[in-house]
Design a protein that fits this description.
The structure holds 2 protein chains of 2 kinds. By secondary structure, chain A is of the alpha+beta class. In chain A, 18% of the residues lie in helices and 26% in strands. Chain B is α+β, with helices and mostly antiparallel strands. Helices cover 17% and strands 34% of the residues of chain B. The chains are: A alpha+beta, B alpha+beta. At the A-B interface, strand 12 and helix 5 of A face strand 6 and strand 7 of B.
């Protein structure tokens, strides 16, 4: 059980998302970096999709109200347990009364903006439509459908895991993706791609895109060379999913993120592939990114590669949990 | 030897495997070799004389009591700093608490913390960052802190 002593606005409980409800107009929500969430859970011996705290506004301070194991992944916020510095991307143990603090993410070796605090068995909040993710727009899921406040108490489904105190190399090391020195994500051209000028199409792939301050869990607004349609377009609203890149009339694209609404009416220029959404979900406001053109089969290969990495990670962690059981 | 699943070996096959492993082990300075598989557990301990290099280190450190040697609890690549941090985890001469992480052993994507066995002052590293170390290999000397009444 933990008590939130200090939190910024918009830190929420998230799991891997509320899938299968888009048809009812319910967006998926879920962790912006599902890979970090899954890795933190695996460190504790949890199922990869257990609910955790997503921290995107710092600093965060929580007090452990009982002895409790925990894992930290995602952005590296120079975490401390009382005064003791903690390794990033690792499982740790706290005693009752100890205070965990997370500061602003370091933007050196790991250029990431969101941290995940995982607890044994996951954060114990009610399951709503098959997920514990906070749906801020609908004000349900997570903790009372809202972001965390100071004084909130969150219960872990268990206290101790018996998990070995391991640390992990973040996936950025095994699966790096850059384009001419900038962090990159792969994109499939979408339905209205062909309705833009060849110059705009070229600029999209060859230019840098800056993530503006008008970016959050709902979507990232980017700035770069404005994308020009061959002719003005008026479209009916249609279904959209996280990753879809829309182009409003000003030509500056918007990438839909985890809290995207399920429909939209802007033309769709492309879609960030599922295997790279975690990368984008970690890119800080103000950073410059590149898009790499991808094909359907490349997107599937990338997803398989990511799943293989995660399966291998689970296997490696299991080796140490087993060895500890034997010792 | 053809690739074969451990659990398909009969007892003669296992004895043969153990013999081969022992041969390989004697050609190295590996002191202890354990192999676990489904329903299989092989443990090969080299004779005391075979650990001459480790014993030599132990003898030399006995001169400066009370000192302890921190040894690798696993095979792995020794990391003196976390791969995401430029600063080493600890410095020579630093006072550390029991259990404090002194280094990491990297095995694939896993980083296994090497904890201080006791509170004390760190001596010098006996091996280098980035080197593959074996199980039980001496990593660093430390002088144990004199115990108070508490």
């Amino acid at each position: 059980m933990i008590e939130v002593l200090h939190t910024g606005a918009l830190n929420t409980v998230q799991d891997l998302g509320r899938h299968g409800s888009l048809g009812w107009g319910v967006g998926t929500a879920g962790a912006m970096d599902g890979v970090a969430l899954a890795a933190g859970n695996l460190l504790l011996g949890n199922a990869p999709g257990c609910a955790a705290l997503e921290v995107q506004v710092f600093p965060l301070r929580v007090r452990f109200l009982q002895d409790c194991d925990f894992a930290l992944t995602g952005a590296d916020g120079n975490a401390r347990l009382d005064e003791q510095p903690l390794l990033p991307w690792a499982a740790h143990s706290a005693r009752e009364g100890q205070v965990l603090s997370l500061g602003l993410p370091r933007l050196d070796a790991l250029y990431r903006s969101r941290a995940y605090l995982c607890l044994p068995g996951g954060v114990d909040v009610p399951l709503v439509l098959n997920s514990r993710s906070t749906q801020l727009r609908g004000t349900f899921g997570g903790l009372e459908g809202r972001a965390l406040n100071n004084g909130d108490v969150l219960r872990a489904a268990a206290a101790r895991t018996g998990a070995a105190p391991l640390a992990l190399l973040p996936p950025e090391r095994a699966l790096p993706l850059h384009c001419e020195g900038r962090p990159a994500v792969r994109v499939l051209p979408a339905a209205e791609y062909g309705a833009y000028t060849p110059a705009s199409q070229a600029a999209f792939w060859q230019g840098e895109w800056k993530i503006t301050p008008q970016s959050d869990r709902y979507g990232y607004r980017l700035t770069g060379q404005a994308l020009q349609p061959l002719a003005p377009m008026e479209m009916r609203s249609h279904g959209i999913v996280p990753g879809v890149i829309q182009v409003p009339p000003d030509g500056q694209p918007i990438v839909q993120m985890r809290d995207a609404q399920p429909t939209g009416g802007y033309p769709k220029f492309g879609t960030v592939i599922e295997a790279d959404l975690w990368r984008l979900g970690q890119m800080p406001i103000g950073s410059r990114i590149r898009f790499i053109e991808s094909s359907w089969s490349e997107a599937l290969d990338a997803l398989a590669e990511l799943q293989d990495w995660q399966a291998d990670l689970a296997r490696q962690i299991q080796l140490y949990q087993n060895a500890r059981g034997c010792a | 030897m053809k690739p074969q699943e451990l659990d398909t070996l009969d007892s003669a096959g296992l004895a043969d495997l153990a013999g081969r492993l022992q041969g390989w082990q004697q050609a190295t300075d590996i002191g202890l070799l354990e192999l676990r598989g489904p329903g299989v557990f092989i443990r090969l301990q080299a004779p005391a004389g075979a650990q001459a290099s480790a014993a030599h280190v132990a003898a030399s450190e006995a001169l400066q009591q009370p000192a302890r040697t921190v040894r690798a609890g696993s095979v792995g690549v020794l990391r003196l700093s976390h791969p995401l941090r430029a600063q080493p985890l600890v410095q020579r001469g630093q006072t550390v608490s029991a259990g404090q992480t002194l280094a990491l052993l990297q095995i694939g994507a896993v980083l296994l913390p090497v904890g201080a066995p006791c509170a004390g002052t760190l001596g010098q590293w006996l091996t280098q960052d980035g080197v593959v170390v074996g199980y039980g290999q001496a990593l660093i000397d430390m002088e144990e802190e004199a115990r108070d009444a508490d």
